[in-house]
Amino acid sequence: MTSENPHTPPEPEETTAPGGPLPFAVTGPGDLQLSSDRTGTTTFTVTNLTGRPVRVRLQPKSSDSQHDSWYSVAGDPEVPMTVGATITVDVRAKVPGDVAAGKDSMHLRAVDEADPEQLTDGQPVAVAIPDPPAPKKKSPFALVAVIALVVLLTGGGAIWWFLLRGSGKPALVSAPVITGTPLVGEVLGATTGTWKNASSTDIQWYACSSATSCTAILGAAGHTFQVTSAQTGTQLKVVVTATGGGGTATADSALTASVGGALTNTNPPVISGTAYTGQVLTTTTGDWKDATSFAVQWYACPTPATCAAIGGATGMAFQVTGAQVGSQLKVTVTATGVAGTGNMDSQLTTAVKAVVQNVMGLTVFQARALLTPYGLGTASVNDPSNSGCSIVTNQSPAPGAVANKGDVVQLTVTVKPPASCILVATIRPTVYATYIPVVKKS
């Protein structure tokens, strides 16, 4: 059996791997004493050192390859492992009765199914083989049973024997089925289907570029399979081979959907342009792997941690308005692919600055109405009464200069007394009330 253990095992005494660091750590006991019936079980621990999720194939090996059949893993010999995970593996030994007493040596090999060259051989275990069990005395009842069988067959029982036995060739009842989502990194499962007259079944996974062009995946011969990037864009299936007394038969599962890769961003979106009122900024969607579509949303951020979506600003370009003065801007790109959706933000722009409008020739009331939506204040430098009817003859900063939110535009005016105009209140389609003076004719 195999089970996952979160604790780190002791370092292995003997491990090997062709080139580079060890992909696994494999530890076990130093010896195994078989019982009188020449069977026994020993336990190993295996730790994933690859730095990535893997599917490990567990292979008991004898120092004499002719003895490999004596040893087997208790449970599934192919196990998925997370990064750094440790599992325990029980290995069973069963030595044939006709083998002389003595010693054998075996070890456990851990192989990365996605890259079979990455493997680790555990330390050797000395196996003590006892004397063969004494042969059992033949029971006299065995001779009686043989005679009874002969009588049965010669008495016409052979007909019933073959009718009841049937042809023995496996027959498919229900087809194999693959479960799970075909995405890189996901673990898929497969059933063997339902068979009649089958004593055993074997599974092989295939990657298919079309319904008629499929290639067997090396080492993928279990009930589960972890999809790798090598299968991206292909469809998967399993072929089950059933074996019975009358021969073998095969059956295919249905093809999965095309294998999709994990949706990942490799470069974030980038905003281009100058964050001034009236300017048009543009953005990219960034670089994505396995994305099929994108959505863009622009945000105004009074602080880096406080951002609000700008209504209607969902295109690749955005014209800055007075409402954003003092805030930083960013875009959030939402990418969609086979694996789902993902979001990525651009960096924040500098704080938006206001381009000062030309208010010369307007009344002070009109100048205020034009500059206030940009977050700018006004002050008349030579009008103590601050008459809204006075006419602006000069301004500082000059038209076209840039200013920060809260800056004050100094107005030089030709003073007009309040009695020289009538104030008429009107409402523009903004939140600002604008007072348009009508100067009396003298």
Quick rundown:
This protein has 442 residues and is mainly beta. It folds into four domains: 128 residues, Immunoglobulins (Immunoglobulin-like), CATH 2.60.40; 82 residues, Immunoglobulin-like; 82 residues, Immunoglobulin-like (Sandwich), CATH 2.60.40.2700; 86 residues, Trypsin Inhibitor V, Chain A (2-Layer Sandwich).
What keyword list fits this structure?
single chain; 442 residues; mainly beta; Immunoglobulin-like; 4 domains; 6-stranded mixed beta sheet; 5-stranded antiparallel beta sheet; disordered C terminus
The CATH topology of the largest domain comes to Immunoglobulin-like
Q: State the distance separating the first and last CA atoms.
A: 106 Å
Helix content: under 10%
- Main β-sheet: number of strands, strand sense, barrel status? 6 strands, mixed
Spell out the CATH superfamily of the largest domain.
Immunoglobulins
Number of helices: 2
Number of strands: 36
Which structural class is indicated by helix and strand composition? Answer: mainly beta
CATH class of the largest domain: Mainly Beta
Q: Could you say what the CATH architecture of the largest domain is?
A: Sandwich
Query: Runs with pLDDT <50, length 5+?
Result: 5-17, 158-164, 423-442
Q: Calculate the mean pLDDT score and round it.
A: 84
How would you describe what is shown here?
A hairpin with a 7-residue loop joins β13 (178-179) and β14 (187-190). With 442 residues, the chain is mainly beta. It is built from two helices and 36 strands. The termini are far apart. The protein has four domains: 2-129, Immunoglobulin-like; 171-252, Immunoglobulin-like; 264-345, Immunoglobulin-like, CATH 2.60.40.2700; 354-439, 2-Layer Sandwich (Trypsin Inhibitor V, Chain A). Strands 3, 5, 7, 9, 10 and 11 form a six-stranded mixed beta sheet that branches. The longest helix has 26 residues, at 140-165.
